[in-house]
Design goal:
Layout: E1 6-9, E2 16-19, E3 25-29, H1 32-38, E4 43-49, E5 53-57, E6 62-68, E7 71-76, E8 82-87, E9 93-97, E10 112-113, E11 132-133, E12 139-140
Parallel strand pairs: 3-10
Antiparallel strand pairs: 1-2, 2-5, 3-4, 4-9, 6-7, 7-8, 8-9, 11-12
Length: 146
């Protein structure tokens, strides 16, 4: 018997998808590209193998935007909701915006990435999660005072 799938959707509901556990990781990204793409202080993503994501409805309404030389972001052509992220460095995985899920996933956020690139106007209280940054966005750093 397979584990239950969790459903998700864009804001308008034109694109619907489901994800099967287990998730590989879950974390808050503070990079400037994620902030701009979502219009938010940071974005929480979770990662699964691509084979665990199933587009249930509206696949033709998904738009792909190559946001850098190594990554692409997918969004709903109708409402603009950001949905998925793919990178050439992890071609078998897909990152999914946690806020678009209609139920819980199997992981809580585990870290902050690109934390030293975070918006200066947002304060992140100590939450016990590792704060990573540096050139890769994934190196341990000391938090700036909030």
């Amino acid at each position: 018997m397979s584990a239950a799938r969790t459903e998700g959707a864009c804001l308008c509901g034109a694109v619907r998808f489901s994800v099967a556990p287990p998730s590989k990781l879950c974390g808050h990204c503070h990079c400037s590209m994620c902030r701009r793409n979502h219009g938010a202080g940071f974005v929480t993503w979770f990662t699964v193998p691509r084979t665990q994501l199933r587009i249930e409805q509206g696949e033709g309404g998904l738009e792909r935007f190559r946001s850098s030389d190594h990554a692409a972001r997918f969004f709903c052509a109708r409402c603009g909701s950001s949905l998925f992220f793919e990178t050439d460095t992890r071609p078998d995985d897909v990152d999914i915006v946690l806020a678009n899920m209609e139920g819980p996933i199997d992981l809580a956020p585990q870290f902050h990435i690109h934390f030293d690139d975070r918006a200066e106007w947002i304060s992140i209280p100590e939450d016990g999660l590792p704060r990573l940054g540096g050139a890769s966005g994934l190196e341990p750093i000391k938090a700036k005072s909030d």
